[in-house]
Write a structure and sequence with these properties.
- α2 crosses α3.
- About 65% of the residues lie in helices and about 0% in strands.
- By secondary structure, it is mostly helical.
- The mean pLDDT is about 85.
- The chain is built from three helices and no strands.
């Protein structure tokens, strides 16, 4: 893959996998991965103003859980 086509190719591959990512995790973990991710976010205890980086987080569902938790915190 040429450098100019690499980003497009990566996006296409990820888009195909992303649709099935949570389904595969559900099947392999019997749904426990959702509980683990909720527990991870609870353990992290994200607070407004904190920088948290979700690297290689699959479909970004941990980051989305963190954002959802922060939405419900009062603004200082």
């Amino acid at each position: 893959v040429g450098v100019e086509d690499k980003a497009k190719h990566v996006h296409e591959v990820f888009s195909k996998v992303a649709e099935r990512y949570d389904v595969m995790n559900d099947a392999m973990s019997a749904g426990m991965h959702r509980i683990w991710k909720d527990q991870l976010v609870d353990t992290l205890g994200p607070m407004r103003g904190t920088t948290i980086v979700d690297l290689a987080g699959g479909t970004g569902d941990v980051a989305f859980r963190i954002m959802e938790k922060l939405k419900h915190q009062p603004v200082p």
